[in-house]
Amino acid sequence: MRIALVSALYPPEFRGGATLVCERLADEFDALGHECAVFSGRTTAAEPLGAVAQGRIGAASTYRVNVGGALHPWTPQGYWNPVASDAFADFCAQMRPDVVHVHSLQGLGGGLVGVARRADIPVVVTMHDWWWLCPCLFRLSPAGDICPARVSPERCSGAQGIDFAARRATLRAVLSEVAGIVVPSAFLRDSLVENGFDGDRIAIQPNGLPMGAPGPRRAAGAGEDPLRFLFVGGAGNSAKGLGVLLAAAARLDGPFVLDAYSVDAEESRPWDAQLAERLVCRPAFAPARLDRVLDAADVVVVPSLMRESFSLVAHEALARGRPVVASDCGGPEEVVRDGVNGAIVASGSVDALARAMDRLVRDRDRVRELAAAARLQPATPRAQAEASVDLYRAAVRAVARPRPPRPPALGGRRVLFLTGMDGAPLRYRAWNLLERLRCIGMDGEVLYHSDVRAVSAARAADLVVLYRAPLSTTVARVVGESRARGVPVVFSSDDFVFQTGDLADAPALDHPDPAVVSGYRQSVEGHARCLAAADGFLGSTPELAEVAADLGRPAYCVANGLSNVLRNLSRGARERRRGAPVTDGRVRLGYASGTDTHDADLATVAPALGRVLERRPEATMV
Predict the structure, then answer these.
(1) Which strand (E) or helix (H) includes residue 101?
(2) Cβ neighbours of residue 261 under 8 Å, at least 6 residues apart?
(3) Percent of the chain scored above 70 by pLDDT?
């Protein structure tokens, strides 16, 4: 299979629990003979918004898009990001995956699911946190408050500038499109159900843990050396309870050492005097060194304030015979049994954590008893990968099933556009509209009003649209045959070129070329006759429709639209421009016109523009 994994961030920019799971799965998929690629976000001011960096991490090729500030939890782009959606569409076109497995979407947005589904690619979602409920991923507010079980982000102390009702509605619609939802623990599943999720759609799949190389390991609590506590940190150490741990450790009197990984000296500075040389701050370690790090420890401490959906480190410690002291933060409580293979203390309680740690410092026999009971047998990454592939295959089969046909509605209907214009106006009023009609199952063609094929094409049409066409001999025949068949004919215009009685201020009448003036008068008269022969009117603005209605014709407004290609290009250019730093201090003013008949429009504003250009040397006019 071709498997696409989606992660908000990915190495080398970021390492965390979810990225580690993705890395391990990618390696296992490769070992099982599958092709795997990872789509992720990244953030840098050195490149334009939407810029993509491609590479390879382990067994997976990577496709990392610059999402700028979209990873900030309180920006709407965090849950709906057109820049990431456009990049993901390119990624899917390039990789053509059989299935997409989303592990995290913050900063990328739910639009990725729609991109995959429009390409008939099934999507599986693993929820490693509470992002689908609230931007606070782990139910811990920016002020450090633990969120209640019933998540209500509207009351959050950090909520700024985000419409939570829109966020919930958007992500609820996104989830309705996915083939399956997976969580790593019963704790997270139960929490989601309590918050209104359908439990029947959620499967529990514990994260797989590598057991490392077999061989003898040092027994926890052995010897007379100081007891070694281990804390494994990373991004967000305050949420992981580092401050509570250091405050508790400062109260201990007995011989101990606290090895704190991914903790820098600045984070521990307030505790330097109390802890002296009993605290050792160490840099992050590579996953390959996990066995060595755990072998050097006697007790692992997981003092999280945030809610843990799984806690890799708690599971890895118990699997290697290391007791765990953890807060009552959720995930660890499924494997840490208080008084049997570790201790559970109240989240955020310095007193409770200090008492639990002090007891172990003073009682080595107790440490050894807890270690003897730490015999967790976790699922392996290979088993998790095989279970995932089974889930993918079921999702692919479901997509491949015959779908019930859509109600016919307007499907199969044909529209004939007969035009007297070409160029950009024709695109806006005919070709782009036909493209939109094809999205709902209709079809048609666009012909010049004097084309010899017009009459035969009209015989196959269910609607005839005359776009700025004169009542020529051919058009008159089309109107007559259409009326005999009961097919409606409408005149379409994006200008007041059918209004013969109000030409005094038409800019074309002031054109220096007499042929242009004469041609304009003739076209207006021809358009007026065409409107009179038609059954109705389509105008690009309400004002045009109102004028046609005053002339006695049923009138409707159908606004000009962009093509899909131009719309996507415009959206991408806008987002890139929005995120691009202004480096030269210049301001560019633009004026775009289709024909020289609009010169008078520019002349109207020229004095004001001239004053701006004179007073502001940094401004230029294009």
Answers:
(1) strand 99-102
(2) 230, 231, 232, 233, 282, 283, 284, 285, 293
(3) 92
